[in-house]
Each structure stands twice: as structure tokens, then as C-alpha cells.
Amino acid sequence: MKKRVLGIILALSASISMASVPGLTASAAETLPGKVDLRDFNGKNYVTPPKLQNPFGTCWAFGAAGAAETSYLFANNLGVTAGEKNNNVNFSEKGIVWFLYHSITADDVVKGKVRSSQIGEGNDLEEADKEYINACYNFGGSGVNTFNFFASGFGPVDESVEVNGDYPYSYNGKNKLRSNTDSGYSSDDNWSIPVNAQYRSNSTANAALRSCNLLPSPSTRDAQDNYVFSEENLNVMKSELAHGRAITIGTAFEDYLRRDTWSMYNCKSLSANHEVTIVGYDDSYPKENFTRYFKSGKEVKGTTPPADGAFIVKNWQGSLTEEDKATAKPSANGGEIYENPNAGKWGINDSGYFYLSYYDQSIESPASFEFDSNDSVKYTSPNYDQYNLLMSGVYDSVNHDTETKMANVFDAEEDEYLYRIAYYTNEPNAAADYKIYRNVKGGDPESGVLLEQGSTNHEFGGYHNVDLKGEYFIRENETYSVVLTIHYTNNGKKVFNDVVPFAFNIFDGMHKTEVKGIVNEGESYFYNGENWNDLADIKEDIIDRVYENTKNYTGSLKKMIDMNPDGKSGISIDNYPIKALLAPASAHVDRAVIGDVNGDGAVTIDDATKIQKFLAKSVTLTAEQQKSADTNGDGTVSVNDVTCIQKYLAGNTSGTGKTGEAI
Q: What is the model's pTM?
């Protein structure tokens, strides 16, 4: 599992998560059911079968894919009868790991999807691949690492997707070699995938992604770094499960696992070295099932949790059915090999599941995914304007007493309609105020024409997709900006927060990743309360800060070097995690609301004024705005349309102002 590397990554991910976060209120917690099992939720199973991660240390990708699968199935009402296998989706772990650990190439560049300015960005394994083509599958990671991968439109992708007559995302290698010693496939196989746009950008669910959530852990630490159990944080996790969203977590595995009851309780503060997926919980699960005993029968002191209660957890050591048992053949090491590569004799009744105490002290980096239903997705293959393609799970974040802003400035690569933005917040219960400008100039993201502004609140940190009130036509080569102000309240005081992704070279003892974040001039800007600063001009200062913060976190320079042998030179930062999602003009569905000329979501006197200014030739209107301005439906924009709006506002009209309907 590459425990050392995984532990480092999970620890850093946990450091950006919340140690003590306001969770549900007491009354809300009381409404939670005493047990939730997404394998049998109102008679339906929303959980895919447990897999076998062998032959690599890819548990983190399995944990994230497993959580995403269940959340996606639940959002789309794709449950099957409880007790039956749910194979309605099968997200690729192989695709996650391979492309997360391989940087952007010239062959990845596609207009509207991946920009040429980002060639080389990401985790470069060119040298490691020469030594061992499968090196990336043993570097480790965490569920949080998948956030930007999913939010960038690269995942998740189903293993059933075919490319050039093959199924490259299936977890079965390239030559499909089987191990002769263990179940699963062989690490001697070639597990590579071609690195180009045809293979990288085949996501089957990214358009339905709503959010990637950083959840609080019930295992927290006080100022002296002592373990403290948080019932509030536990209730947050239970609430996610009750709403059909499975959770991926890191945990210490498996020294404290009782195999007779398949129950695990880490009664010491151990570092996580394995990632699994929580699919349910049971408040009444007996605490005595976790108690460990010496061979003499004497109880091992401290191994009984303080109270009942456990998570229901899906692991990645396989499961065994009667059909699997019928295919058993002896292996070279005296065990058994099964025809099904995901078969393995592990867990409760060989099911692949185990119980984890609520009070386990090693739970780190809980994360969940929220999807919209496919039926509600309007654009299934959106364009992405984005500069942050460094697939990191850690973010440098600084708090400010005065207002700060982050912004990305884009130039449209084709005619398209801006309809959604996405961004990352690092703190729970944060608000994000956004503004969209067009025709920005001179290094000032707020210098253009304001298209829309709004504010959203987010219970969790993580990536958030936010639909705009309108859909705005952006012409090819036109420059526009997304300006973001993130703030939250701490002890009654408003705190402003900026977020910068960073990553560092990782050495696993044999191979090394070379990370590269590309921050070009004119892409990202930071407002410090007085002036806008190009991120490209201040990135070295941020790297210095990240280096010092990471060194302080690891506790010593030696540990820092052990984790990152290249020191400061091995650290890269990326552009601000702000993205724009757009519908190509050819795919856009006209949804202009008649009368809403300024695109603010309502028909007001301001719209009549805008038409008057257009007729006076003091402003211009886009083609979409002119459709909205034609309020009487006669095919032209005239003073009669102003009169229609005035009558509409006075209630003297038969129209409604809806899409395509004259007022």
C-alpha cells in the first residue's frame, strides 16, 4: 500500500481539513435514524460490489471511486433490489491514478477543454516510467486528490467506455496477465494508458458533478495534539450517509482489526495508511465486538471503545460468492485463485465489509461527492476554461482581516455560453461572493462590463459547481473574468481567505514524481485590499511560505527532506482553483427569458431602460439579449418592446416572461 507515502499525503490532506467544525445542531442530530445501510436503503442497494485492489497500492483511488459510485447511483435512482449486485456503474480507479500522475501533453490540448498554455503541468513521471511503467500505481494518494481531477472534467469515467476497440479504463492491465500466487492481476503486466485527449477526457459523469466535499472527522485533536472525539462531526458524516452519499476515509490498517468479528478500533492515534469507503452506520453495534484479548483470554486494556456504534465499511481485499468458490484453483503460495479477479476471502461472511468504531482515533480526511441526476444535466459535454491542472490534494490558504479577492481571466477559445462556475474553498461554512465581467483589460479583472454577481454559502470545504442565473454569450477571443471573494466568520469576526493549490515532488524509495505548476502572466490575480497583483509575480513568495509551513508541519527539516528530497525546488504552486464551464455555441439551448435583457433572472424596469439605451445607440446588445428584448415577438427591437415591459410590470399583459413567450 506504500504506507509511508500514503500516510504523508493523508496527513497533509487532513491538515487542511477541519479539526473542530460546527456540525449539525442537536435537534438535527436527533432526527438521524439509528442505522443507515446504503446496501439496503428502503429496500434498494446503491452500493457496487467490493473490488480487489491487488496488485497495487491504489486504495485511495478505490476509496474515492467507491464513494462516487454510490452517490451517483443514489442521485440517479439506480438502486437495485437489496441483496442483488449493483453493476449499474463502475468508475475506473485505473483511469484516476494514471492520469492524475501524468502531466498535460501537447496531445491533450483540445479547444475549449485543455489549453496549450498548460502543457507540462501536473505530475511528470517520464523518468519513472522508463524505470517501471507502473510506478504511478504505488505512489499513494487520498480521496481529496481526486477533487480537482473530477472538477476539471477528467473523471470519473466508467470502465465500460471503449476507445479504439479496447477498454483502457478497466482495472485489468494492458496484457491482462494473471498472478499465479494471488487473486487479481499481475504487477508485471503493462498498466499504461496513452496520454492524449482521446483517452484523458472521457468522463461519463463529470457534467453531473455538483460538489466534492471535505468533511470533518470525529477524530480530532486539541491544542496539545491529544485525541478528542467529536459527536458533532460524527453527525455530519452520518447525515451525508443518510442522504445517500458514501464517504471515503483514511484509516490505520489493520493492526487493530478483530478478524473473528471483523471489527476495527484503533485505540491509539496512529497515522492512516489505507483508504476505504463508508456505506452506512449502526448506532447499536456492540462496543464489545471491538475488544481484543490476549491468548490467555485476558482483555487487552483500552481496546474497548467508550460506547456502541460503528461505520459499515467497504474494503478492497475482494469478496467471495458461491459462484467464485466454484472456480477456486490452488495458487503457487498454497492459497486459492479465483476466476473473478475481484474475488477474495475477506470480511464479514467473505462479503468484503467490516465495522469501524465511531471512536477510531485514526480516521482522516473524510470526503464525499454530490451529483445531480443525469436527467437534470443540460450540457453533457461542457467546455472548461481553467488553468489549475496540478492534481493536488493540498492547498495553501491565508486568512486576512480586510477584503481580498481572487480572479482568473480567460479568453474564449470559441463562441460559447458561460453558464456555470466552479471553485475550491478551504474552510467549512464559507461564503463565496462572485462577479462575472466581460471585456476586461489592463490586468484589472474588474475593469470590464459586469454580467452577473451573486453569493453562495457552502457547509463544507471542497470543490463547488455553481450555476449562474443567466447564460452569457462569449465570443471567440473575447476576454472575461471570474472574480471570487471567499469569507467566513470566526469568533464573530469576518475573515477573508485565499486558496492556492500546491504540490511537491514525492520519492517512494525507488521512484520520484516531478511536479510542475504553470502560472503564466495574465491568468490569475490577487487583490490585497488595495491593488490587483498578477499571481505570476508573487508565486515565489508563496512557494517560500508553503515551504516554511510544510517544514513546520512535519516538525523537522529531516522529515521534510524525507518527504520531499528536493526541498524548496521540489514545490510548485498552481493558478487559483477557479473554473468556468461553458456550452459551445453549437450545443447551446436557447433559454433567453423574454424581457430579461440584462440577464439578471428577472424582468424589471432596468430591462426597459437597457432597450431604450440600445435604441439610442448608447449600448450594444448581444444576439441573445436582442431575443430577450423582442418582447412582443415581432422580430425586431423597438419602442413597442419597452411599452410591453411597462405593461407587464403594471400587470396589464397576458404573457408570463418565460422562455420564448412574448409578454
A: 0.86
